[in-house]
Amino acid sequence: MTTDEFQERQRVPRLRLRVTPAAESVLRSGHPWLFADSIREQNRAGQVGELAVIYDRKDRFLATGLFDPDSPIRVRLLHVGKPRAIDHNWWAERLTQALDAREGLFDVQTTGFRWINGESDGWPGLVLDRYDRTLVLKLYSAAWLPRLDEIAELITGRLRPERIVLRLSRNIQTLAQQQFGKADGEILNGPPLDGPVTFLETGLRFEADVLHGQKTGFFLDQRENRRLVESLARGRDVLNAFSFSGGFSLYAARGGARSVTDLDLSAHALAGAKRNVALNSANACAASCRHEFVQANAFVWLNQEPGRMFDLVILDPPSLAKREIERPGAIRAYGRLASSGIEHLKSGGILVACSCSAHVTAAEFFEAVRRSTLNAGRTFEELRTTRHAPDHPATFKEAAYLKAIYLRV
Questions:
Q1: pTM to 2 decimals?
Q2: Residue 250: what pLDDT?
């Protein structure tokens, strides 16, 4: 269904909203979300995915966005400023902008990266990732479902992938199935899949479970940190805690690490890490590095194996604060985790601590790690801090989740 067809189907007046003065200021500043409690007037009940037009207190056009009656984020903004038609040409222009922003970032040695990063690329609640010839389109908002066919057709026409896989956030899967007949892991077009797809990242081969894996099948956002770890790994014994499918480990091995230990609670994740090692057996450095795989709770293992010492410790846990109320506890947990990691570092060793918790700011996270290092009685040299990769831009506060700090202890 095209945008025009969708609006025609409505056969009702355009959905018009007026918002609080505070919300007006926030929207004009560029924030892409309008929350339900900021709406002070609405001309009728809205349907999921229809275009809502927002007016200011003087009845002047303010913005246009996708409406979702069941979400606290009631409108995800598409356009702010002077009125513009949101039609096929508009979507095509927006896609071109996202693709152009990645021009020159990657060569033929990297065939896995993000084409569209949601709100920060002007596609609120939508992500598009590339895994070689397979694209994964992930929706975090039900507001995209009525336009899914149009968007998929636009992407296919522009990028010519072998297939497009649909991934859906858990909170919209039931609605997607019941109202639109769409399921998580469904192939929108192209041949079926009977397993993971493989892709290149800086010349290393990885598999991605695009049908059922976390995120869209792989943690593409940590690419730049993996490259940095490779540059630090030569001659070192490396611990990769919360290793998942072994991305950091393979980069460390190629970088000349003496040994790499993958530590993860999931047997499934460790099996994937072993397959990724096998995929890179032709690389001399990766093949010569000694790989160890340990299935254990990383929080527990780090406290129960005091004799295991390493030259490089990587701590990349899952989000420890998925809600704002969990933020204080997460900051303390990051500090305790850093303390545990430091206990396994030889003198002159390097700690790489990462956080993907949007509710914990970079300043709070970095301070927690630094404080833990000092409290452990260790002096340190701060090598660097990092944030988002260039294909994962973060243009507003809530989008800024990824951060890492490198300390030589």
A1: 0.94
A2: 98
